[in-house]
Amino acid sequence: MQMMTLDELKKEAFKNSNVKKEYDALEEEFKLIKALVDMRQKAGLTQEEIAQKMSTQKSNISRLESGAGNPGWKTLQKYAHACGFKIQLKYSQ
User: Fold this and answer.
1) What are 60-70's pLDDT values in tens digits?
2) Which residues, other chains included, contact 66 with Cβ-Cβ below 8 Å and sequence gap of 6+?
3) Mean pLDDT, all residues of the chain
4) Closest CA to 78 of 40, 23, 46
5) Residues with Cβ < 8 Å from 58, sequence gap 6 or more?
6) What is the DSSP string of 21-61?
7) Residue 92 has what pLDDT?
8) What residues contact residue 30 under an 8 Å CB cut-off, 6+ apart?
């Protein structure tokens, strides 16, 4: 059995309009998760190192980066600062 790539899996799943609709509804959350992981990687830090800088557990960082939580603004700021970044809030219509 041949393994599917993520893109192939998405293409197949998106044939179902309900799956595509639900995926699209999560777009902003996916962008936030990507931004968090990008910050950490650009800083050259591991989840463990970020956790130490934030005085928290690695499992909390893992949950944050997987989208399994609902972080507050202060948590997002602490994460960004631990990576050497600042975050800004933007809005649009």
Assistant:
1) 999 999 998 88
2) 33
3) 93
4) 40
5) 47, 48, 51
6) HHHHHTHHHHHHHHHHHHHHHHHT--HHHHHHHHTS-HHHH
7) 87
8) 67
